[in-house]
Amino acid sequence: MATDSSLLNSELELQQQEELYQQLLLQTMGNMQTENPESKVIRPLPGICVKTLSLPGKEKIFVNICQSHSVPLPPELSREELVELLQSEDPSGYRVPMSLGEPHTEIDNSSRGCTAYDVVINQEFFQKCQKDPLFQQFVILVSLEGLENKYNLELSRDWKVLKNRTFLGSVSEQNIRTKSRPVIQELQLQESFTATARRPEFTLLVEPPAGDPEYLIAEIKLPGVPSSRSLVLDVGEDQLVLTARPSLFHLDIFHPFFVDQEKSVAQYNNSTQILTVTMPVRSS
User: Which of these, 142, 7, 11, 134, lies nearest to 65 by C-alpha position?
Assistant: First the structure.
């Protein structure tokens, strides 16, 4: 696999920097072993019930979009920004945290069997969607796409929100992550800052500098970002996506290694305003 030499620095220029990264690796790996379990059981509140069809069989599908404060709040998004997002070439750049439950068999009003899915989103964001039909349509669309991707489905976009039903079946408990991965550790707070979205400066380093890489380390400079609460980070096998709300920075890059997403960790230092993401490289 070819590497991009402009992104990777094969040597740490100063011995002091090398020692710093060694300490960081030991610290982050130690944190992973001693942290509390990163999931918990919640019982969400009913919200809206959406009726649609699976394709091509046209079987009835019901999607219960529920609400809970335990699900993270997505980045701040105005109606104008949502319109621009829906008109953009890549609306998937905005992510809505959600918990997708397992399918369960229910009985519809015609006493016929059907399949229902439970989707849980942040309660505050759900209330925002209830006040604006455009946001409601958006969250329904995102929910359908999430179910399609997770369960290999094809769902009709000709849906209907049931007026007199907030949930089909009974509200079930769900096991959700209490922390998004990788964990972003907050060190201290600063005053908020607002600016237009832009691509931040970043550096990718491999550790150790020579031989087979064990870790890929991303250092991302985020001047003006108030705290880790402003960051939404998604680490893929060969991709890193970062958004600093409200539209401060946006970074979407591919890197030349396959990393372990579950064991990746991140740390935001408010003093230096640098986000460090440590990603274990999978052996080939």
Answer: 142
Rounded alpha-carbon distances, angstroms, from residue 144 to 49, 57, 61, 229, 237? 12, 17, 10, 27, 24
- Give the residue, 36 or 202, on which the prediction is more confident: 202
Is pLDDT larger for residue 128 or for residue 18? Answer: 128
Burial of 262 (0-12, 13-18, 19+ CB in 10 A): exposed
CB atoms within 10 A of CB 196: 7
pLDDT in tens, 85-127: 888 766 666 788 888 888 999 988 888 889 999 999 999 999 9
**Given a cut of 50, is residue 19 above it in pLDDT?**
no
Residue pLDDT, tens place only, 221-242: 999 888 887 888 888 888 888 8
**Edge-first strand listing for the sheet containing 249-254:** 231-235, 239-244, 249-254
Specify whether the CB–CB gap between 271 and 18 falls below 8 A.
Answer: no
Can you spell out the DSSP letters for 116-153? EEEEEEEHHHHHHHHH-HHHHHHHHHHHHHHHHHHHT-
Give the Cα separation of 52 and 152 in Å (integer).
16
Does the pLDDT at position 14 exceed 80? no
d(Cα 66, Cα 43) in Å, to the nearest integer?
10
48: left (phi over 0), alpha (psi -120 to 50) or beta: beta
Torsion of CA 269, 244, 121, 123, to 10 degrees: 80
Residue 222 CA to chain centroid, in angstroms?
Answer: 19
Q: What b-and-e string marks burial along 163-182, b requiring 16 or more CB atoms within 10 Å of the CB?
A: eeeebbeeeeebebeeebbb
